[in-house]
Specification:
Blueprint (H helix, E strand, L loop, with lengths): L18 H8 L4 E5 L5 E2 L14 E5 L4 E9 L13 E8 L6 E4 L14 E8 L5 E6 L12
């Protein structure tokens, strides 16, 4: 069983703009906001398309496959519940099928010294104590596996 960050880490507070994103995550679907006029993907979600200024949007499911665009290794706990999880990575993942959308998350199964820009990753789901899920990424082939946390 895969594990990563602790369950008692505070959860994100959805806004009206990103509530559909979190609702899709709770269904284990990675959906990215897309302009209904010019079809450009955008993340984080916004009320108006930055490309064509249209307020019309839809939510499109994407594969969750991608590449590590950038990352950092945290050696200092930014929240008290993270002190026993050190060191951990924070990765910026460029999604394959969503224009130039990048998601900030974690690669759950790669040692800090093995993290690399260009690493191929795939989506996995971390169950949360509230019954929802967070998107995480795997550097191995876990094809939409579920991650459990300590």
């Amino acid at each position: 069983t895969l594990t990563y960050l602790p369950q008692d880490l505070p959860l994100p507070e959805p806004s009206p703009d990103d509530q559909p994103y979190w609702d899709a995550c709770d269904q284990r679907e990675l959906r990215i906001q897309r302009c209904a006029k010019c079809t450009r993907f955008r993340h984080p979600p916004t009320p108006i398309c930055p490309s064509c200024r249209s307020p019309k949007a839809c939510w499109t499911q994407v594969s969750g496959n991608g590449t590590v665009f950038s990352y950092t290794i945290a050696h200092f706990a930014t929240h008290p519940v993270l002190k026993d999880a050190l060191p951990y990575n924070v990765a910026v993942v460029l999604l394959d099928d969503a224009d130039d959308v990048r998601i900030i998350s974690n690669v759950i199964d790669i040692a800090p010294e093995k993290m690399a820009i260009g690493l191929r990753v795939s989506l996995v789901w971390q169950p949360l104590h509230n019954g929802g899920y967070l998107p995480r990424f795997s550097g191995r082939d876990h094809s939409l596996a579920t991650v459990t946390t300590p």
